[in-house]
C-alpha cells in the first residue's frame, strides 16, 4: 500500500445545498440498518448485499470495515444526510479506486422514503466536484444494470456520458446475465478544474 496514499489529507465531510455528506463513524450502523430495512425491497434487485435485511450488528460491523477502508484509502464510503432534519437519506461513495490513474467509480443507493426528491442527483454532483477538486480525479464512472432505470437517470441527469454497454457482463442478483451500462466524466472533456 502506498505511503503517499495513506498520508493524503482526504476530508471526511462536505456539504451540498441540502446534504451533509460524510464518511461513516462508529455508531452509524443502527441508522443505516433502519434505512436498509425500509428500502430492502427496492434494493434487492440491484444490490447483491440486499438479498436479506442485515441485523443492526451486521450493519455496524460493515460500517466499521468501511471506516478502515476509508482510512486505507482503498474505498471511500460516504453517508448522505439531510442537513435540516439530520435524517440519513442514503449512501454513496467512491469505489474501484485506481489512484495512479485518478479513476473512481461512484456508487449509490437511496432510502425509499427519500426517492424522487433529487437527493441522489445532488449527491452525485457534489461527490463529483469533491473527487475532482480534493482527490484530483481524472475519470469518474457510474456503472449500473441496464434495467435499473432510476440509476441510469441519475447518471444522465448528472451529465455523465454513456460510454457503452458491457453485454452479459455479469450475473445479476436474480441469476440472469446482466448488461452493465458504463457512464463517465473525464477531465478535459466533461469537466475542467
Instruction: Please report the number of helical segments.
Output: 5
CATH topology: Aminopeptidase
Coarse morphology: globular
Helix fraction, binned, reads 25-40%
Largest sheet: spatial strand order:
1-2-3-4-5-6-8-7
**Average pLDDT figure:** 93
Unreliable segments of 5+ consecutive residues: none
Give the CATH H-level superfamily: Gcn5-related N-acetyltransferase (GNAT)
Query: How many β-strands, per DSSP?
Result: 8
Keywords for this entry:
5 helices, Acyl_CoA_acyltransferase, globular, eight-stranded mixed beta sheet, 32% helix, 193 residues, GNAT family N-acetyltransferase, Aminopeptidase, alpha+beta, acyltransferase activity
What can you see in these coordinates?
This protein is α+β, with helices and mostly antiparallel strands and 193 residues long. The chain has a single domain (3-140), classed as Aminopeptidase (3-Layer(aba) Sandwich), CATH 3.40.630.30. Helices cover 32% and strands 32% of the residues. It has five helices and eight strands, in the order H-E-E-H-H-E-E-E-H-E-H-E-E. It has helices at 3-6, 29-43, 56-72, 119-135, 149-157; strands spanning 13-15, 19-22, 76-82, 88-98, 103-110, 139-145, 161-171, 177-186. An eight-stranded mixed β-sheet has the order 1-2-3-4-5-6-8-7, with helices on both faces. Strand 3 and strand 4 form a beta hairpin. Helix 2 (29-43) packs across helix 3 (56-72). The radius of gyration is 16 Å and the shape is globular. The mean pLDDT is 93.
Amino acid at each position: 500500500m502506498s505511503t503517499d496514499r495513506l498520508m493524503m489529507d482526504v476530508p471526511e465531510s462536505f456539504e451540498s445545498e441540502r446534504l451533509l455528506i460524510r464518511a461513516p463513524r462508529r455508531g452509524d450502523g443502527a441508522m443505516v440498518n433502519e434505512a436498509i430495512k425500509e428500502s430492502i425491497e427496492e434494493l434487492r434487485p440491484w444490490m447483491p448485499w440486499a438479498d436479506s435485511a442485515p441485523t443492526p450488528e451486521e450493519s455496524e460491523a460493515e460500517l466499521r470495515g468501511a471506516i478502515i477502508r476509508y482510512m486505507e484509502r482503498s474505498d471511500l464510503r460516504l453517508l448522505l444526510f439531510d442537513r435540516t432534519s439530520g435524517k440519513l437519506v442514503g449512501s454513496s461513495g467512491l469505489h474501484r479506486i485506481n489512484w495512479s490513474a485518478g479513476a473512481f467509480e461512484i456508487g449509490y443507493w437511496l432510502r425509499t422514503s427519500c426517492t424522487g426528491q433529487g437527493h441522489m442527483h445532488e449527491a452525485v454532483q457534489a461527490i463529483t466536484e469533491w473527487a475532482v477538486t480534493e482527490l484530483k480525479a481524472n475519470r469518474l464512472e457510474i456503472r449500473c444494470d441496464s434495467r435499473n432505470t432510476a440509476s441510469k437517470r441519475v447518471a444522465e441527469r448528472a451529465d455523465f456520458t454513456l460510454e457503452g454497454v458491457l453485454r452479459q457482463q455479469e450475473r445479476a442478483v436474480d441469476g440472469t446475465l446482466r448488461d452493465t451500462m458504463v457512464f463517465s466524466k473525464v477531465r478535459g472533456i466533461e469537466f475542467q478544474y
